[in-house]
Design brief:
about 375 residues, alpha/beta, 2 domains, 7-stranded parallel β-sheet, 6-stranded parallel β-sheet, 13 strands
Length: about 375
């Protein structure tokens, strides 16, 4: 039995956090004993408990050094990080873990704790890594490379941006999606009405109220499409992290202006995303950078057409535009043109959508989906104990 500490650096419900929780639940329990380790009692802890996973909380302030303010605040935060390293190392030693699975390259402190506890580390690169990286990121990646026994990547783009030549063991592992639940999702007219959608509205669903997700670009594009006579209804899901409160507030103000007024709905957190996706006419990912947004995959399996920016592995998933529309990140005019086209040609694209739905469901489902990851983790632990 391999004991794995599955360490998240945030307690919010993010794509990476949900992917980690799915991994905890789905690794073969006959081979892996997984413990979810969180920095606080947040939404991800609540979601885990609702699924029968009891997390271990090792407290850590969920604030980046860049957002810490002045020198004194940064020093206090660094001191707190030191305390977190010691607490997590103690937890890893007491738990007699065989492996620490670190779920983000956003921080190195969990890896430092694992090394201090003499527990081998596997890092999962979910984020889009700048290519080439800036100086601060180069230092962070250098540390991660030196601490890692293995590297997991959410995208091929991540491998290219962070090749880590000194780490021999690497694997691109796609995030799992619940194919059966997604295939069973159906359009819900009551839900559409709760969004304020009229019968002839084209509902555009998007997720994320922080700058990287590009909702500001989507609203700018939607205003142009509305001016062209397209009856769009934009539905934005999710809650803004504390550090993005100003950005989210600006989105809400913009939604009350001009042609957007009365055409934008903010849902907050959504508990049944498959039904939301199936109830939309388009799913849009306007991200400025991303590895591979899992909601794009889920939308395609739900049979909802996708428009997304050409970032990360999105072009690979969409086969260069044959499975969905691609636009350059930050290009509101191009996005407006695509929204207008997609809204006016929905019926003619139905056969293509059905074909893509079947293809993507096959790619991201199946009982052996986790087998390559299980082999990777077992071999990493075996190599570390020789």
């Amino acid at each position: 039995m391999i004991r794995c500490a599955m360490v998240a650096h945030l307690s919010e419900v993010s794509g990476a956090g949900v992917a980690l929780l799915d991994t905890v639940r789905q690794l073969d329990p006959a081979r892996f004993d997984c413990t979810l380790v969180l920095p606080g009692e947040g939404p991800l802890a609540g979601r885990a408990k609702s699924m029968g996973v009891e997390p271990v909380v090792v407290p850590n302030a969920e604030v980046s050094l860049d957002a810490a303010g002045g020198a004194w605040s940064r020093m206090r935060l660094l001191a707190g990080r030191g305390g977190y390293v010691l607490r997590l190392a103690k937890t890893l030693r007491r738990g007699k873990f065989d492996l620490a699975y670190i779920n983000s390259t956003s921080t190195v402190f969990a890896g430092l704790a694992a090394v201090l506890a003499r527990v081998p580390v596997v890092w999962h690169v979910h984020e889009t890594v700048e290519n080439p990286p800036g100086r601060k990121l180069r230092v962070k990646l250098w540390v991660i490379e030196r601490l890692s026994r293995g590297l997991l990547y959410a995208s091929q783009t991540g491998v290219e941006a962070f090749p880590a030549p000194s780490v021999a063991r690497k694997l691109v592992v796609r995030n799992w999606v619940d194919v059966d639940r997604l295939l069973a999702a159906r359009r819900n007219e009551e839900l559409r009405q709760s969004w304020g959608a009229a019968a002839d509205d084209v509902v555009v669903l998007a997720n994320g109220l922080f700058a990287r997700k590009g909702a500001d670009v989507l609203l700018e594009a939607a205003a142009v499409a509305l001016a062209a006579g397209v009856p769009l209804r934009v539905v934005l899901t999710g809650e803004a992290p504390a550090e993005s409160a100003d950005f989210a507030g600006e989105l809400e103000r913009r939604a009350q202006m001009g042609r957007l007024k009365g055409r934008v709905h903010f849902t907050g957190l959504v508990s049944d995303m498959p039904t939301a996706l199936a109830s939309a006419d388009l799913f849009v990912s306007a991200s400025r950078n991303e590895a591979l947004p899992i909601l794009i995959v889920e939308a395609l399996v739900c049979g909802t057409p996708v428009v997304c920016t050409d970032v990360g592995d999105c072009a690979l998933l969409l086969r260069g535009g044959r499975r969905g529309a691609l636009v350059k990140p930050g290009d509101a005019a191009a996005l407006a043109a695509v929204l207008t086209y997609e809204a006016r040609h929905r019926e003619s694209r139905a056969p293509m959508i059905a074909r893509v739905r079947d293809e993507v469901a096959q790619d991201f489902g199946g009982k052996d989906f986790r087998a390559p990851l299980e082999t990777f983790l077992a071999e990493t632990v075996g190599e570390a104990t020789r």
